[in-house]
Amino acid sequence: MKYRLLFCLSCMSLFVFMACNNPHGPNAMNAADTAKYYPLRGFFKEQIEYVDLRDFPLYEIRTVNGKKDSLPISKEQFIAIAGRFLDNDISDPRVKIQYHETVFQDQSTGSITLNYSPVNKETRVKNIDILLDQETKQVKRVFIRSAYQKKDTLVTEQYSWKANKSFLISKSLQTADGFQSTETTFVNWNDKP
Asked: Under a CB-based contact definition with an 8 Å cutoff, are residues 151 and 173 in contact?
């Protein structure tokens, strides 16, 4: 009887020890971040640098509530506008855990799509799609959708980046009393129509 009790206590101690040291258990938040999300922040920084180091003609087409205006922009203006893409970075370990990654191979477009969708619907970034070339694994397109409340206004933003060519930012505002406004900003540096 004495040996059985000792054996049971030993097994229980071993069980408690293993549970406390399990990297997937209660202490998982203290474990090293091992998720391998696509380094989107690095991609945007490389793209911005790519444009900054070259002499591309830069222009912006802005449409506000249907009225269109086109103008050349400086590299500094380009960097400021492109910086809005960096605001949607989800790679920080505290943010990354709020998203789930799925991978889809699309034979019709020759792309691999990485999708990041929130586990919790309260996040600002609602969806990210990254299209990679099936053969080279290089980014072809990035689509980001975010939505948030600013006082009494729902702000929805759509971001689209075409690698080495152009990007588009679309922003819509909507209030409970029916006011609506839309604005799109298309910036081109190497995209032939």
From this structure: no
Strands in 67-72's sheet, in edge-to-edge order, are 67-72, 59-64, 180-188, 166-175, 153-162, 139-150, 125-133, 111-118, 99-106
Flag whether the pTM goes above 0.70: yes
Largest distance between two CA atoms of the chain: 89
Q: Region 171-176: what's the mean pLDDT?
A: 94
Please write the tens of the pLDDT for every residue from 1-12: 444 433 443 433
CA distance 55 to 189: 9
Residue 149: pLDDT over 70? yes
Residues in the chain: 193
How would you label 174-184 residue by residue, b for 16+ Cβ within 10 Å and e otherwise?
A: eeeeeeeeeee
Q: Rounded distance, CA 171 to CA 181, Å?
A: 8
